[in-house]
Specification:
single chain, alpha+beta, Aldehyde Oxidoreductase, domain 3, Aldehyde Oxidoreductase, domain 4, eight-stranded mixed β-sheet, six-stranded mixed β-sheet, 30 strands, globular, binds ligand MTE, binds hypoxanthine, binds dioxothiomolybdenum(VI) ion
């Protein structure tokens, strides 16, 4: 297999790639640091900044009183101050911003600030919040058919409860921004954000100046994973406020501890399900209530809650569904976007419900999964009719290509022969909707310049965060323009070149921005074709461009790309183009909770095999075998990387990453010594991914389907494979759906006697 490498690989491995913290600073640059709440909930009685302000080298300490516009950074709901005013609502909530000559001085100053807070009751769990009617907004419900009455007709009905924990993004590059004053009160920000426009808009609002005075530039991110969709904004705004007052550059990079403490994570969910099946294992009804632990402010929680409802039935067709989600307000840092955006939390519940039913009926979970897979023209609970469905295709291809029968036989004999080690296998199908669930966000633009020497600069709204979107954009430009890759450069993402962008998120960045690049390049080619036809004196219809030359009737002419561009200059033809793409077809009516929100779905099936050490409670993931629907992948190397990375992240969420807050709302898992993420030793021993052979989808860029988030949900398979192994060892084990399935929980399960 030969595909184009990520265009950043050369500078990445040499350590030459630039991140915010690598930038050469202006001589007069100052350094910022947040003073944040040491309590999860309370009234601020007094703060004494005097000692800190008196420290040599401290320029100024900013609080809400220094905000000239609005002290408000809430996106969907205006419920989040930049800096706390009279009350604090989570441990780590920014209260002030110290700006000093060095980071060390700022740190010293922070230790000199004293604060008096009168305690208020702290809520840390969604269940507690619901009991106290502490919500972010009104609940949402999706309905299909009539679940309530259908349960009466079911042969089996089971009810249960699940919990899935949060997850730390752990982007390698922590949050940060460098803000530089320009002329006449304008400010340039170099931010590590997935949403440059969100930063621009919020800075303008808090500073009380128009958006055109703010320029946001993003070089690339050392990972975002959703954690920088909304939560890169506050740090950028703080540096901008400081620049507005001090008129010199200000840089703020969070250290890992501060980043872990102050930023939100994946939402923990407590969920309650009721599942009804017939004797032939068809799921006839499903009722589910999700309690989302949203944290202390809305952030993206309402949108994430919505996506949980969209994915509550995963890749199954269930004719009667009733699902409700509550965004519960707690005293944790506002939880936020994380790869999958609420989808994984929804899917964990339906998979748990199926596992529960299978266990109680006495069949293998996969039999229930298999007979309920989505088929062409099935209706999702939100009204979209499923088309180009690959649920069964990926499932059965996986079964055949990976010889599931043989695999299961091996597991059975292994379990017979071994007392202390047990193996488990699980199948995990996925169906993930592609598009921002908020229809109006599905648009993008590209600006392309062909310079007079024939080299090309491509600007889009896409943010490179390791997912290789820049490489894909380059490929699109190369394909349409018919020139070599070395002639094309991907520019930084900049709000003055490409404005009003949606964040790079929802796995849709390559589709949205790629379509815009394609449109812009097509317009340029149209113009250049006219130029070529004049120069070569032939019909436009016979002209094409390929391999850096103009072709006539399929034959290479002597007119090179460079000469063609030169001729275009002579003929005074425009060599720049801007294009706008908005996803067609999609729509959603929130008053009815019905519509067609997704351009298409991505499908796949993973087979996970694990071995549990029944003495220690530890486990190893032996293999994950995946059949994935890439459509017609435009870069299989990159796409396989996304599958493997997403899978590892999903396994981490399901098995080892354990966020812990104290009852007082303090983050206990506040370092990498207490928060374990997958490393090479805990990664699956083998990962095999077979691309499903399909036609692809026209709404995907070059028919190459979005790949960023869907594979994370394959990781859910690990939970159920471990569970099966535990059950093999301990037939008395009563199934629990409480992730992550850490070795401690496995050990307790292995020796539990309840039944
Ligand atoms: N891959 C890397 N290496 N780094 C990231 O930060 N983010 C993920 C996914 N893959 C991420 C990643 C998330 S949350 C999303 S939404 C998509 O990439 C965003 O990029 P795309 O829209 O281009 O797929
Ligand atoms: N995914 C990711 N980010 C988003 C979405 C979504 O569906 N909607 C709004 N922000
Ligand atoms: Mo991804 S969670 O949509 O940034």
């Amino acid at each position: 297999m030969k595909t184009m490498k990520n265009i950043d690989s050369f500078t990445h491995v040499r350590g030459e790639s630039l991140f915010v913290d690598d930038l050469i600073l202006r001589q007069d640059a100052l350094f910022g640091l947040c003073f944040d709440s040491p309590k999860a909930h309370g009234k601020i009685k007094s703060v004494d900044y005097s000692k800190a302000e008196a420290l040599e080298g401290v320029a100024k300490i900013f609080t809400y009183k220094d905000v000239l516009g609005e002290n408000q950074i809430g996106g969907i709901i205006q419920d989040e101050p930049l800096w706390a005013e009279d009350e604090v609502h989570f441990w780590g909530q920014p209260i002030a911003f110290i700006v000093a000559k060095t980071e060390a001085i700022a740190k010293k100053a922070r230790a000199l600030i004293t604060i008096e807070i009168e305690d208020l009751p702290v809520i840390t769990t969604a269940k507690d919040a619901k009991e106290k009617s502490s919500f972010i907004n009104a609940p949402r419900s999706f309905k299909l058919g009539d679940a309530t009455n259908t349960f009466l007709e079911c042969d089996y009905v089971f009810e249960g409860e699940t919990f899935s924990n949060g997850q730390e993004h752990l982007y390698l590059e922590t949050q940060g921004c460098y803000a530089i004053p320009q002329e006449n009160g304008t400010i340039k920000l170099i931010s590590s954000t997935q949403g440059p426009t969100a930063v621009q808009k919020t800075v303008a609002k808090v500073l009380g100046i128009p958006m055109h005075k703010i320029e946001v530039d993003v070089i690339r991110l050392g990972g975002g994973f959703g954690g920088k969709e909304d939560q890169a904004t506050p740090w950028a705004v703080m540096t901008a406020v400081a620049v507005q007052h001090l008129n010199c550059p200000v840089k703020y990079i969070l250290n890992r501890h501060d980043d872990l403490r102050m930023t939100g994570k994946r939402h923990p969910y407590n969920s309650f399900y009721k599942i009804g099946l017939t004797k032939d294992l068809k799921i006839k009804a499903f009722e589910v209530e999700f309690l989302q632990n949203s944290g202390a402010a809305a952030d993206l929680s309402p949108a994430i809650a919505e996506r949980t409802l969209f994915h509550a039935t995963n890749s199954y067709f269930i004719p009667n569904v009733s699902s409700t989600v509550f965004s519960c307000k707690t005293n944790l840092p506002p939880n936020t976007a994380f790869r999958g955006f609420g989808g994984p939390q929804g899917m964990f519940v339906i998979e748990s419900a199926i596992a529960d039913a299978a266990d109680k009926i006495g069949v293998n979970k996969r039999h229930i999964q298999e007979v309920n897979l989505l088929a062409e023209n099935d209706e999702f609970s939100y009204g979209q009719i499923a088309t180009q469905v690959e649920a069964k295709n990926t499932w059965f291809t996986a079964k055949v290509k990976f010889d599931l029968e043989q695999l299961e036989q091996e597991v059975i004999s292994f379990n017979k022969e071994n007392k202390r080690h047990k193996k488990g296998v699980s199948l995990m199908p996925i169906a993930f909707g592609i598009s921002f669930t908020n229809t109006q966000m599905n648009h993008a633009r590209a600006l392309i310049h062909i310079y007079q020497d024939g080299s090309v600069g491509v600007s889009t709204g896409a943010v490179e965060m390791g997912q290789s979107v820049n490489t894909k954009m380059l490929q699109v430009a190369q394909l349409v323009l018919g020139i070599s890759a070395s002639k094309i450069k991907l520019e930084t993402t900049n709000t003055t070149r490409v404005a009003n962008t949606s964040p790079s998120a929802a796995s849709s960045t390559a589709d949205l921005n790629g379509k815009a690049v394609e449109m812009a390049c097509n317009s340029l080619i149209e113009r250049l074709t006219k130029v070529a036809s004049k120069v070569l004196q032939c019909d436009e219809i016979d002209i094409s461009i390929d391999e850096d030359f103009v072709f006539v009737g399929g034959k290479r002419s002597s007119l090179s790309w460079e000469e063609l561009i030169n001729q275009a200059m002579v003929q005074r033809v425009a060599l720049s183009e801007n294009a706008h793409y908005a996803t067609p077809i999609i729509h959603f009516d929130k008053t009815k909770e019905k519509g067609h929100p997704f351009a298409y779905h991505v499908y796949g099936t993973a087979i996970t095999t694990v071995t549990v050490d029944c003495l220690r409670g530890t486990y190893e993931i032996d293999s994950v075998k995946i059949v994935h629907d890439f459509g017609k992948s435009m870069n299989l190397g990159i796409d396989l990387g996304q599958v493997e990375g997403g899978l590892a992240q999903g396994i981490g969420w399901m098995t080892m990453e354990e966020i812990a807050y104290g009852l007082d709302g303090r983050l206990l898992s506040n370092a990498l010594s207490t928060y374990k993420v997958p490393d090479i030793f805990s990664a699956p021993k083998t990962i095999e991914t077979i691309p499903l052979e399909t036609e692809g989808n026209d709404m995907a860029i070059k028919k190459s389907k979005a790949v960023g988030e869907p594979p994370l949900m394959y990781g859910i398979g690990a939970y159920f494979a471990i569970q099966q192994a535990v059950k093999e060892f301990n037939p008395n084990y009563k199934l629990k759906f409480h992730s992550p399935f850490t070795p401690e929980k496995v050990l307790m399960g292995l020796y539990s006697k309840e039944s």
